Amino acid sequence: MNNDPLPTPYSNREIREIKNLANNIYGAYDKSMKAKYESMSLGWAFGMWSTWMNGQVSNYFAKPGQYSDSQTSIEQEVDSSGNKRWFDKDGRYCIEKTDENGDTNYYYEDTGELVTDQSMMEPIVKHVPDVVQGIWYSLK
């Protein structure tokens, strides 16, 4: 009989680390890991498909006049008279007016005086949601 003491057992942490190393290197999954990866991949694929499918159904049955949150156009802002609005280099609001000769001039909105330095004019733009209509209502 051998009177040597028993070897020190592995701790739970060491057992998990050895198991994870074997799973990552060899792909030798036990049954629980295999089930976990299969259900995780199926769930991930189903989640992506259901997100895509919900969007497709929503687009198909979109009522006329609905606005799309994801599709926008950029338009230049206009004032109540239909004149395009601009910023000058100092950040003051200006409007664009075309005279009877076809010349375009810029005037300050607050004072109405002519803008002399037109070199750094920037348009004031806004994002306008596009109107969408589903195929279902188009074919009716």
Set down the secondary structure blueprint.
Layout: H1 12-26, H2 31-60, E1 66-76, E2 85-87, E3 93-98, E4 104-108, E5 122-123, E6 125-132, H3 135-139
Summarize the structure.
By secondary structure, the protein is α+β, with helices and mostly antiparallel strands. The protein has helices spanning 12-26, 31-60, 135-139; strands at residues 66-76, 85-87, 93-98, 104-108, 122-123, 125-132.
Which properties best describe this structure?
two-stranded antiparallel sheet, 140 residues, alpha+beta, 3 helices
Characterise the protein shown here.
With 140 residues, the protein is an alpha+beta fold. The protein contains three helices and six strands; from the N terminus they run H-H-E-E-E-E-E-E-H. A hairpin with a 5-residue loop joins strand 2 (85-87) and strand 3 (93-98). It is elongated and about 115 Å long.
Q: Spans of 5+ residues with little confidence (pLDDT < 50)?
A: none
The SSE string, one letter per element, is: HHEEEEEEH
Integer average pLDDT: 81
Strand neighbour order, sheet with most strands: 4-3-2-5
* Strand tally: 6
For the sheet with most strands, the description reads:
4 strands, antiparallel
How much is the radius of gyration in Å?
34 Å
> Gap between N and C termini, in Å?
92 Å
Helix share bin: 25-40%
